[in-house]
Amino acid sequence: MSAAPPHRFSRGLTGPCADRHKQILAANREFSNPPHSQLAVAAATLTGKMVPNTPDLSEFFNPHLCANTDRMVNGRISPCKQKATMVCSKCYLVQYCCKACQVANWKLHKPSCNSELLEESYLPRYAKENRLPYNGPPDLTGAGKWFFGLNQYLWGNMPALDVLNMDKNEGKDSIMERDINLLFAASGDLRNVVKTIVGLPEDYAGNFVVVMNDENFAVTARNALLLLSAMHFEPETAVPIMIHLWYSVLLPLPIVRALQDYILPYVQDVCEKLESKATGSQQAKTFKFGHRSIRLVLKKEAWVRLSNMFMPLNQLSSHRAMQIRQATTCAPERIDFFDRALYNMLPGQRSGVWRFRQDGLLIPYGTSRKPFEYPNPTFFVEKDVWPMRDDADPLAGWSYNEYITHSKAAKNDVYGTFFNFLRSLFMEFCKQIHSVKIAFTLFDVDAVKLPSYLTDITFDRIEFKVSNVCDRGYIGASQTLEAFSPMLKAKTENPHATLIMLFLNAVDEAEIGMNPQTKVNSILLGMSRVRRFMPEASVNIINMILGVFDSHYLLQLPATDLAESITIGDAANFFRDFDGLFSTYLQRPVLQQSGSMEDFAQKHGVKIKAQHTIVKPWPCRLTDETTLAEFNIMRSGSLFGSQRYMEFEKLEENPDEATELSSLEQLSFK
């Protein structure tokens, strides 16, 4: 029988990570007084010039793939750095440079290679133990608690979006010398910005303005550090910094030094000049890099927080940082939730997801973890707090169909594949922003207040992706349109100007208001459709989901049938009547006001676009063309397809009444 992995949740470290952390406190003490470059280097940095001694981060740009990472040389651990041309043909998770390294590493690799997670026959523990999965303590509604951990979104939860999509809008020829202004009003992370800029023509010659805002300081701070790194360093150096600062819970010391020596002086210089400014006052600084710039608008105290970000937080060790994170990602009370998710995943994906839950490092499966010793301070902004939910996953912010094409020999190493994808994408992004005339402005204010900071600019695209500010529980559709529709360019300026709104919860909100019989009919409709992909969805299982049978019926089933019954119930969520529910929502999107979405749009000078030209209305849901293989991929993710985009355009206006507004000059990037 195949050996199971160390499939155990605890509040401490597990697996091979535990041994190496004994050496980490000493490494962190080295950074209690972190090294800084000489004044001359800092001065060169602050002028935006490339300093001559750019750090060598090639080890993290092209990580060594030979999994013999505990090789002993002269009595010391020395990971193999030879080119890995072989792959483990049993698990397809790791690579080796030679047979000798594979044999030497077998004792450590055996548990993951023989893991039941790789088997088609994998069963969650609740099925093996003949019990129903634990849904957590009831919340105020009486339902189980589906989410665990804090609700910050430092990573995206919807696939990245190119908000220009120029081929279906302005067109390449038209956009080549056109000045473009983009507003990401509740931006979340950088992924939409990255994807949009990568989509520009290589020889784009216009002025490109990007305004980003997120009320969460940690989000804005992370975006600022990522952009400063992308602009300051050469692409080969910037890319590994971006990957690990964005996604890895621990950082290698060379990356920490690079950030401290070359990036933080920008911020520290600002803080020195703000000492006499009033607390709470908004302070702006523009960092120029030739024809590129980043303008950061923060309160005085936020600048100080940003400058302190890379100082040790109360001597936080790597061991303690891992404990804090694992208290959320590996919480014992979440065993059944995680097993339930694993069961729905593709077999090749499970091992990577399990390992990332444990160590939080975005590197190939067989790459050495030893250089990653310093807690990523952009995650640990608050003492003893992991800021995200237990199911937060870097993969959720990107399209599976895009990153899976970067798979190499270790085809089951999904995070290694994702690393390859990000490396390629970030290289394109860094090269693009080094050649384009681009100006970024970043805010961290309430989205409703943002228009007061942007009175003299209109935009070709305004986007509300990531944050569900458009749903009833947040700002709401009417207030969103009222605040931002005046900032959209008129059709006389750009007939393709579009305001994009994402509704994450609208379908669920509409379903809450359904009468019981309508809800039953909706479930029946979903279950009749699920049989297309899951013919084992029997009448008995359908009745169980409808509540006709009690839990004792399920417990009489064999373990495999019990697990399958639970997952069929989960899969039924893909087949709800999304169109009908969203139509109901659109009739009254704001409960406190009468009026439909169409009424609110017209009131605020825009209209719903008849045809989407940026993004599909339902980009994540099943269609009549969805294959069984595609359905299984969708089940591996975190979305059921109820997320709905809407696109708005300006109403036609009288040209005599149009107000001419400038863009780059009025925003005064100085």
Gist of the model:
The protein is α/β, with parallel strands linked by helices and 670 residues long.
Q: Secondary-structure blueprint of this entry?
A:
Blueprint: H1 17-20, H2 24-29, H3 39-46, H4 58-61, E1 72-73, E2 76-77, E3 86-87, E4 95-96, H5 99-113, H6 125-128, H7 172-175, E5 180-184, H8 191-198, E6 207-213, H9 217-232, H10 235-247, E7 250-252, H11 253-273, E8 282-289, E9 292-299, H12 300-307, H13 318-329, H14 335-344, H15 347-359, E10 372-375, H16 400-403, H17 414-435, E11 437-443, E12 461-463, H18 477-484, E13 498-503, H19 506-512, H20 516-530, H21 539-545, H22 551-555, H23 559-571, H24 578-587, H25 597-603, E14 606-608, H26 628-636, E15 644-650
Parallel strand pairs: 5-6, 5-12, 6-11, 9-11, 12-13
Antiparallel strand pairs: 1-2, 3-4, 7-10, 8-9, 13-15, 14-15
Helix pairs in contact: 3-11, 8-17, 9-10, 10-17, 11-12, 18-25, 19-24
Essential attributes:
670 residues, alpha/beta, nine-stranded mixed sheet, two-stranded antiparallel sheet, 38% helix, 10% strand, disordered N terminus, disordered C terminus, zinc, zinc ion binding, Znf_MYND
What global shape is seen?
globular
Read across the widest sheet, the strand sequence of neighbours is 8-9-11-6-5-12-13-15-14
Unreliable spans are 1-52, 138-144, 655-670
Rg over CA atoms, rounded to whole Å, is 26 Å
Q: What structural category characterises the helix and strand content? A: alpha/beta
Q: Helix share of residues?
A: 25-40%
